[in-house]
Design goal:
Elements lengths: L3 E6 L2 E6 L4 E6 L8 E11 L5 E8 L5 E7 L3 E8 L2 E10 L11 E8 L2 E6 L2 E7 L7 E8 L5 E12 L3
Antiparallel strand pairs: 1-2, 2-13, 3-12, 4-9, 4-13, 5-6, 5-12, 6-7, 7-8, 9-10, 10-11
Length: about 160
């Protein structure tokens, strides 16, 4: 984690890294999801190139998780952290649906049922994976300042539904 701020507003959570490079996250307490569909709007107001923002999914008590993120170059990615090891089931790739730069806004969505996870941005399917390593867990948000400039992203309009197989 690095120096930054987390602010809760009316129906909005803002995450900002003020001393880059760095990473800041916020986890929802006492939430465990297994089969779900989630949507959230992410609106970067200060963001450049490889700076990232997005969702932490199926976060375990031992800090294993999936990290679904967008960057300000217009790319989407998925990382998995398991037993202290990081991997990239879907490395950063341009997709034509995520607007580059800031200010901008994107609607992130994930459908997760069992080992199948499908990832969307702005209503468009981007990619899917099959991975049984994290069948359930918590939920969070993150921002990462990749360069030497600050990053600020506002998250709003969170919707979570129980998903059917």
């Amino acid at each position: 984690m690095s120096a930054g701020s987390i602010a809760l507003g009316k129906n909005e959570l803002s995450l900002g890294v003020s001393q880059p490079p760095g990473y800041l996250y916020s986890l929802r307490k006492d939430t465990t999801l297994d089969d779900f569909y989630i949507e959230i709007t992410a609106s970067p107001s200060i963001c450049r190139d490889k700076d990232e923002y997005g969702l932490l999914l199926r976060v375990s008590p031992s800090s294993d998780f999936f990290r679904y993120g967008l960057n300000c170059a217009g790319e989407a990615r998925l990382d998995r952290y398991l037993a202290g090891e990081a991997s990239a089931p879907h490395p950063p790739k341009p997709n034509g649906v995520v607007p580059p730069g800031a200010p901008s806004s994107s609607r992130l969505a994930v459908w997760a049922v069992g080992r199948d996870l499908r990832f969307y941005a702005n209503g468009v399917f981007l990619f899917s994976i099959r991975d049984a390593s994290l069948p359930a867990g918590g939920l969070g948000l993150y921002v990462r300042a990749a360069g030497s400039e600050a990053v600020t992203v506002n998250f709003s309009d969170l919707k979570v539904y129980q998903a059917a197989p």
